[in-house]
Amino acid sequence: MNAPDPGTPSRPLVEARDAVLSFGQTPALRGASLTVNAGEIVAVMGPSGSGKSTLLHCLAGILTPDSGEIWFDGQRVDTLGETGRSTLRRDRFGFVFQFGQLVPELTAEENVALPLLLAGTKRAAALKAAREWFERLDLAGLESRRSGELSGGQAQRVALARAVVSRPEVLFADEPTGSLDSFTGEQVMELLIDAARQEGTTVILVTHDPRVAAYAEREVVVRDGKASALAPDPVAS
Ligand SMILES: Nc1ncnc2c1ncn2[C@@H]1O[C@H](COP(=O)(O)OP(=O)(O)OP(=O)(O)O)[C@@H](O)[C@H]1O
């Protein structure tokens, strides 16, 4: 349902306009602007402490900038109240973080079903929808395990299933492979990108790893709290 119509020209879906945000005396964003079109897969790169996660959190309506504007699908996000932003996050966004942050008391399939249960889907239907993702993400047979009984790569794929089970329009991923070895990280990235392409999901991916960023269609660099398109590689040009 979310798959882009190839005949439709790209349209801006997620946007930061001149976002400024400080944590006390520490400036994190100093006028960051970024536009991501519907269906795009964008990697946000940059040095440690440059403001990547802060920008992602602003775009996702987790943080509100001190000034500037955040837009999603033609709607101002930064001026919404906490309730409006949390509804947006629940209904239209998915999240994957460095450490999957699964609920340890729940089974893998209950973790995946959680966003649907929170949105009011009946338990049987939520678990059925969750189970479909176990096959797709190479997790079949692990439905009843708890997070302590999963490998890091398996847990991160369960976290990915949880992020996409409600078919979000935007998937926000912050160092989704940061806790994994490079081989396992590549498997997770391949599954993440395949799932996003099949569903037409827009992906905004924070990473410091060029191998992870290479899965994206476009790279944006954040430096000193400002975002810019990656300069062309001088060797390649
Ligand atoms: N909750 C917070 N309280 C205080 N300062 C913060 C907080 N979060 C981030 N910062 C500061 O804001 C700046 C930007 O941090 P941010 O986490 O956005 O950077 P980053 O580029 O994602 O870094 P990394 O790659 O190391 O994760 C840094 O100077 C950081 O120390």
TrEMBL record:
Keyword Ligase: no
Protein name (record): ABC transporter ATP-binding protein
A GO term for molecular function: ATP binding
Organism: Rugosimonospora africana
SUPFAM superfamilies: P-loop containing nucleoside triphosphate hydrolases
Annotated InterPro entries: AAA+_ATPase, ABC_transporter-like_ATP-bd, ABC_transporter-like_CS, ABC_transpr_LolD-like, MacB-like_ATP-bd, P-loop_NTPase
CDD domains (alphabetical): ABC_MJ0796_LolCDE_FtsE
GO cellular component, one term: membrane protein complex
Keywords tagged on the record: ATP-binding, Nucleotide-binding, Transport
Limits of the ABC transporter domain: 14-237
Keyword check for Oxidoreductase: no
